[in-house]
Amino acid sequence: MDYNFDWNVVTSNFPRLLEGLGLTVQITLIVIVLSMVLAVPVALMRMSQIEVVRWIAQLYIEIFRCTPLLVQLFWMYYALPTLTGITIPGMVSAVIALTANLTAFMAEAYRSGFQAVPEEQVEAGKMLRLNRVQQIRYIIIPQALRQQMPVIMSLNISIFKDTALVSTIAVADLMFTANKIASESYRALEILSTAALMYFIIAFPASLILSKVERNMIEGNKKGSTGQKKLLRPKTAVAGKAVGAQ
Question: How far is Cα 95 from Cα 31, in angstroms, rounded to an integer?
Answer without folding.
Answer: 6
